[in-house]
Specification:
Shape: globular
Low-confidence stretches: none
Number of helices: 11
Largest sheet: 8 strands, parallel, barrel
Mean pLDDT: 95
Oligomer: single chain
Distance between the termini: 18 Å
Length: 273
Amino acid sequence: MTGIPSLFRGLFDDAAVFPPGDLPLPEAVPAHRVHRAAWYAEAVGPFLCGAARLDELTTLDLTGVQVVLVLPGGVGQLEPALAASRASGVDLVSVEIAATTPVPEVVAALDRRLPDGVTAAVEILRDGSDPARSLDALVKTPYRAKFRTGGLTPQTFPSEAELAAFVSGCAERQLAYKCTAGLHNAVRHTDAATGFEYHGFLNVLLAAGAPERAGELLAERSGKLLAEAAKELTDSQIDGIRSSFTAFGTCSIVDPLADLAALGLLEHPLENR
């Protein structure tokens, strides 16, 4: 019933309420439930929601919806968000917390407060500080790293070299990671309307499997070449890639799947194309 290869299972976290999608919560939650019942359900991760919208979220029917709370304000948002989620009965599976304070402080707060069974990703901020020190602080913790790969301005898009340094830095430390924002399509490209340089999620997947070639793979703009490389991956290589690059947040679930179908990487015809 599913045409989702293991390379893409659980890859697409549902960030429909975040820019540029900005889908209203009363529409986004039912849409997420539709995704989770569709033939491509195995590709769909949990539902992402900002902590500031938790009160609104809990007025909706969340039956069967696993929630990730995004905490852009850092440690100060952690305890209130956890308390509110406990009180409301939200099925909280993870938090994503920005390192607005040094990562060791974030790790200590997570160690103290995170409930059993709830995971976390710590966003390494692109603020000019040394990312290596932040990654070092996550070594031997149960927490993933998180990296922002785009946004609404040119400055929010890291260069190929910066993203390659993050990917290779995580590989050197055996850190799992996720990405957020900007990975709208499978293949690296220049957006015709804005001129922004978008990274491709297929580029990132392949870079995760060959971090020593991360810069070269992140720069590749041929969908044909990337698709051929993906088809040649062994099961062991795919396991290694997905244990490193675990997911990314996307405001559209269907668009990334449409890209994969166009590249010949999905066997099932995409619905609603």
